[in-house]
Amino acid sequence: VEVAGRSVRIGPVIAEGGYSFVHVAYDMLERRRTLALKRIVCHERDDVARAIEEIELLKTLPLHPNIVRYRSSAQRKIALPGGVIATEVLLLTDFYPGGGLQDVMNRLREEGQVLSEQALLLLFGQVCNAVAHLHSQSPPIAHRDVKLENVLLHGEMDASSPGRVRLVLCDFGSATTRAQVYETRKDILEEEERIQKFTTLAYRAPEMVDLYQRKRIDERVDVWALGVLLYNMCFNKFPFDPQSPLSILSGRFSFPTGKGGDQMYSAALLDVISRCLLVDPDVRPSVFEVLDQVRKL
């Protein structure tokens, strides 16, 4: 397939969701270069606009070592079963062979490897760096789907040397600079539809779960997601029922303890999680405050 003048051979699917498919792709000119090709099948004009918004955001975003690197993009018409013609948007990025952080965490647990608190903080700090880069733009960019599955590894990782791996935040299909309070029922319903379609309930901030609270929805939703992500990295579970909006809205959670009833991590690390998971976004810290706190540990 041709992507903006670059000829690539499409390999196997490595991820999919909704109408998007991510393939390994091979550059036919630079034979040693392996890339990732995201194919977004768009049935409506709004879908095309959303895909183009993702591409434009990545194209214009200053490079950062912890954010997926854009290479090129294109559009083409394709025929679907039944003779339906759709637009396929193609997005070519760097390929990260280490896989996703969720899969790696699962593998380490299956092998009985335990990450130290310092290792967890090193990894978490890299995700925070990526989010901080987004939030430092003018206007700030909210990723809105920060989760373990959207963090990739550049390099292999084991419990003894986590510092050698570089983490990369990917999938900007939910990202936006939009930041506002939704006042009218029409606006609320439209935003609820976007949230349902492009974000993950288990990582959603309370202000995204109940828009009728009329709290401003902005980049602070990513800080909540970072709290969920770190909790998951530490305890291999979610702080709230991942299928229950009411559980998220309550903001009530607890920290699992070890066999003797002692806490498994330091009070300072648990405080990072607790501050990220403050229900009221007006008192939730910024990602820059979270980073400062992590760097002091």
Please outline what is shown here.
The protein has 297 residues and is α+β, with helices and mostly antiparallel strands.
SSE topology:
Elements: E1 2-3, E2 6-17, E3 20-27, E4 34-42, H1 45-60, E5 70-79, E6 85-94, H2 101-110, H3 117-135, E7 151-154, E8 166-169, H4 185-198, H5 206-209, H6 220-235, H7 245-250, H8 267-276, H9 287-295
Antiparallel strand pairs: 1-2, 2-3, 3-4, 4-6, 5-6, 7-8
Helix pairs in contact: 3-6, 3-9, 6-8
Structure, described:
This protein is α+β, with helices and mostly antiparallel strands and 297 residues long. It is built from nine helices and eight strands. It has helices at 45-60, 101-110, 117-135, 185-198, 206-209, 220-235, 245-250, 267-276, 287-295, and strands at 2-3, 6-17, 20-27, 34-42, 70-79, 85-94, 151-154, 166-169.
Strand order of the biggest β-sheet: 1-2-3-4-6-5
Determine the N-to-C terminus distance: 48 Å
Percent range for β-strand residues: 15-25%
Question: How many strands?
Answer: 8
The overall average pLDDT, rounded, is 93
What is the H level of CATH, i.e. the homologous superfamily of the largest domain? Transferase(Phosphotransferase) domain 1
Name the structural class.
Answer: alpha+beta
CATH class of the largest domain: Mainly Alpha
Note the overall shape. globular
Biggest sheet features: 6 strands, antiparallel
Count, helices: 9
Whole-number radius of gyration? 20 Å
Characteristic terms for this protein:
two-stranded antiparallel ribbon, 9 helices, EC 2.7.11.1, 20% strand, alpha+beta, serine/threonine-protein kinase, 2 domains, Ser/Thr_kinase_AS, Phosphorylase Kinase, domain 1, 297 residues, Transferase(Phosphotransferase), domain 1, Kinase-like_dom_sf
